[in-house]
């Protein structure tokens, strides 16, 4: 192989892998959007029934489950846990805002 063939091969391979990465990133965005649609509904339900925004026992079960799934998928369980915590922290902020809004300005 000449140098320019190697360059062509590397460029083609990089482009092929990046197409796959772009598809996966799009799927992640769509899945997160669906997850947030569901959690928004949970936020409204919790606010209507005066339930606390966070449920640490539920989170502990989710973390245990995700760590196991990550291990079987050969993904770092610590990373899976960090990612879930990051998402859930944002969800809790949304829940708190929904609760404040549903309580009204005098609450
Ligand atoms: O399941 C709930 O009670 C939620 O509010 C959803 C959710 C989540 O994003 O998965 C968010 C906050 C809770 O602490 C636990 C889980």
TrEMBL record:
<feature type="domain" description="Chorismate mutase">
    <location>
        <begin position="8"/>
        <end position="99"/>
    </location>
</feature>
<dbReference type="InterPro" id="IPR036263">
    <property type="entry name" value="Chorismate_II_sf"/>
</dbReference>
<dbReference type="InterPro" id="IPR010951">
    <property type="entry name" value="CM_bact"/>
</dbReference>
<dbReference type="InterPro" id="IPR036979">
    <property type="entry name" value="CM_dom_sf"/>
</dbReference>
<dbReference type="GO" id="GO:0004106">
    <property type="term" value="F:chorismate mutase activity"/>
</dbReference>
<dbReference type="InterPro" id="IPR002701">
    <property type="entry name" value="CM_II_prokaryot"/>
</dbReference>
<dbReference type="Pfam" id="PF01817">
    <property type="entry name" value="CM_2"/>
</dbReference>
<keyword id="KW-0413">Isomerase</keyword>
<protein>
    <submittedName>
        <fullName>Chorismate mutase</fullName>
        <ecNumber>5.4.99.5</ecNumber>
    </submittedName>
</protein>
<dbReference type="InterPro" id="IPR051331">
    <property type="entry name" value="Chorismate_mutase-related"/>
</dbReference>
